[in-house]
Amino acid sequence: MKPIIFFFLLFFSTYNNQLISQDSTSQKDNKLKTRVDKIVKDVFRQIEKELGADIYEDESEDFELNNELEINKEEKYSPYAFPRNKKVPRNNSAYFIPENLDDKFLFRYNRVEGLFLGLQSPHQYFWDIDRKLTIFGSIGYGFGIHRWEYNIGFAHQLKSNNNLFEAGIEAHNTVDSRDHWLIGNLENSLSALLFKYDYKDYFLRKGFSTWLSYNKRLEITDIQMKFAFNNDNHSTLEKHVNWSLFRSKRLFRENPDISDGNVKSLIFLFTIHKLDDKKFHLAGWSASTSAEFAGKSLKGDYDFNRYIIDIRRYQPISKYDNINIRLRIASSHGDLPLQYKFELGGIATLPAYSYKEFQGNRLLLANFEYIVNGSMFSDETTFPLSLLDKFNLILFYDAGFISKVANSESFTSGFQNFKINSLKSDYGFGVGSIDGKYRLSFAWKTDRKTAASVFIRISRPF
Hints:
Helices cover about 15% and strands about 45% of the residues. With about 450 residues, the chain is α+β, with helices and mostly antiparallel strands. A hairpin with a 4-residue loop joins strand 12 and strand 13. The longest helix is centred in the N-terminal third of the chain and has 26 residues.
């Protein structure tokens, strides 16, 4: 731990000395002010990229024109395969690098690692320059778990117009989670740090991955196909910290046990997005499919197949309102390790129910929301309805089905047990920011009368 503390002390000491030396003349004062303003903007813009929201500067009135200008100003590389506009939510699976990992400085807080600080050279995809070999990696320290974590990788890229082919290999020793699709690192870290709610479960992942991928990027459409081989040793981790700024008497829940051992698997991924930002809402659709095959023929400890399909539709109704729908289907066959099981309940799935209340190896999930921008009312009314101009009104409904069938059953069986009365569902309403990310919502179960579940989000649920 001492080397990293020394590194950060040396960094800030050097930086402060530079600032002091610039303070000798009024001209240097102006330079210092400009530099500080730039640093503040850069910090807020990093947070904006994480959240996909406008914080530091208001959203432009001519939103679509600004998007076009931003596309033209795009850098020569992108830390993801495709997005020109960071506001578009990507359809992540457990095997994609989450969107929030493009920063050079890594920060997170959870009940297993405690405070994690690190540095990163992110995986980049070069579209407009000839850069065949890329090297990427990260290193950081978890102060709660008292452990260094790292990854390092190499990739070879070949591009042709809007097509990019890649072959790569990466070694890693890190704390991982299968819950990236539920919540991003920043939102989860703030929730844990402030209110002692950690919405991810963790395990230690050591090993390597190698892959071949094809990526295609058009103006509002992107495609990625990826074939990978993973060789990982998974280990259970315990909860190591119990501190938060508020709710000091509350305890973090324990980190659940996993199925320890070596998992060797072949993975096929296919994603396609056709999304276009409008002034207030999204338009288009997004689909992601993953299939993982872990057989004893690969000489791993587990023998299973696992399939996930995730489809999302963002449908504008008018200038002011939008309907958003997500359908998620998951199934498996064989000896599924605990960390690969499917779960429903709580954040981003069925918010009126307890977190991961339902578990199994067959899953159906449907989420529906109707969003109305408040300017629909404020354009023709006066106070107090005029206050709605900067808000969205949200109505939502969620329904899910989950079951457990014998490991020997095929991945298509088990869904015949689905009946309407076997669904778990909830409904509710919320008030959100104009860009749809920040929202305060209230949800009720449909199967019995209960008090409302109240939750705050700083990102879209899907």
